[in-house]
Amino acid sequence: MTLTAETGTQETDQSPARTAAADSAPRRPSLSPSRAADFKSCPLLYRFRTIDRLPEKKSRAAVRGTLVHAVLEKLYDLPAAERTVAAAQTLVAPAWDELREEPGVAELFEAPEGEQAESLEAWLASAGQLVETYFRLEDPTRIQPHGREELVEVTLPDGLLLRGYVDRLDVAPTGALRVVDYKTGGMPREAFEAKALFQMKFYALVLWRTRGVVAAQLKLLYLKDGDALTYAPDEAELLRFERTLQAIWAAIERAVATGDFRANKSRLCSWCDHQALCPAFGGTPPPFPADAAAAAGWRTTLPLTVATD
Prior knowledge:
This protein has a single domain (3-241), classed as Lambda Exonuclease, Chain A, CATH 3.90.320. It contains 10 helices and 7 strands. It has helices spanning 16-23, 33-41, 43-51, 60-75, 85-90, 92-99, 120-137, 193-211, 235-258, 290-295; strands spanning 3-6, 9-12, 147-155, 161-171, 177-183, 217-222, 227-231. Strands 3-4-5-6-7 form a 5-stranded mixed sheet. The longest helix has 24 residues, at 235-258. Mean pLDDT is 88; it is low at 1-12 and 19-25.
């Protein structure tokens, strides 16, 4: 799951289908954009989510991101001429009916007596506004996606398995690729653009390694602001990014083999569900589940190094 701290909340920008797929364990340990970002921001958070698989509370902002993603995915099931704002708005209610059946979702709108919380109607209206904003950024009647919520994966020569889900993949008649991602939060300041593009470069690398084509455009659509961030990578940049991912994975493997996942205290801690178990907040993590990690395919011993004269 992709969690990004946007405007003081966590937005989960993914569809229910992706959520269900994420709940099933991959064939073997792999690296996704979100899990790589977790380890970079806080190795202990990575451990809690990936190794311990500790539960996390849902939030209204996160569920709204999931709902908007579901609507935009279903929008492209309609014939091109029928992809209008009005048609998209009619998709909100049925998408919500499906989403509210997931554990922990309906309870978000059962506010305690006396608590002034946003009503369900207002919350659904805010989701509809985000959907409407999408039409200011693109004309869906002129787009025929090649893939939606598409799993992309590749095994690098060193054995590292990269996998992730692309919101939308467009392929031009010339074969040029465009990778599109929907964000329900606000557009990042210029200083944080590189962090926002990390996920998109990940997808571009996997597509390049599987298709032999460098994506012509990476496009992030920020529905809160009605703005877009676009970027055109090149082959040399993707090679450097591949080495970055390999370095992250090597650090993860060392942490798994030693059970040493350090906490990294930052402003993102405000949205973390695991403060009670975090040493940075006086907590004590549970014992490292080495047996479970080994059963899941993790290497739990450090590789031998051969000394050379």
